[in-house]
Specification:
The chain has about 120 residues and is mainly beta. Helices cover about 0% and strands about 50% of the residues. The strands form two sheets. Strands 2, 4, 5, 6, 9, 10 and 11 form a seven-stranded mixed sheet that branches. Strands 1-3-8-7 form a four-stranded antiparallel sheet, with no helix packed on it.
Length: about 120
């Protein structure tokens, strides 16, 4: 069992920055990958970024490449999402997710086993 808690959400103006953090606890030793997803009102849950903990390779949605960075902090047992040059279309609830077993696609929410409760990010134009 893995517990995930997101933090760092808030409201910023266009062009600003936020850093989200996902703290993992429980049986995290079996975690293969971590991901960030977001969901805007009335829209589907959208892949944002992922990181494989085995080799620390990362993957990003085209919409956030060059602006967002996903990273891990072993000392704090967290996975972070640095968001720069924020746009109004980045607004939504951001969810952290964990995948237990290796393999599979990481850009779909069905691949993940555990989810946090989400944190709201609001970007005003």
């Amino acid at each position: 069992q893995v517990q995930l808690v997101e933090s760092g959400g808030g409201s910023v103006q266009t062009g600003g920055s936020l850093r989200l953090s996902c703290e993992a606890s429980g049986r995290t030793y079996s975690t293969y990958a971590m991901g960030w997803f977001r969901q805007a009102p009335g829209k589907e849950r959208e892949f944002v970024a992922s990181i494989r903990l085995t080799d620390v390779t990362t993957q990003y949605a085209d919409s956030v490449k060059g602006r967002f960075t996903i990273s891990r902090d072993n000392a704090k047992n967290t996975v972070d999402l640095q968001m720069n040059s924020l746009k109004a279309e980045d607004t939504g609830v951001y969810y952290c997710a964990a995948k237990n077993r290796p393999g599979g696609y990481l850009a779909i929410f069905q691949a993940y086993d555990y989810w946090g409760q989400g944190t709201q990010v609001t970007v005003s134009s």
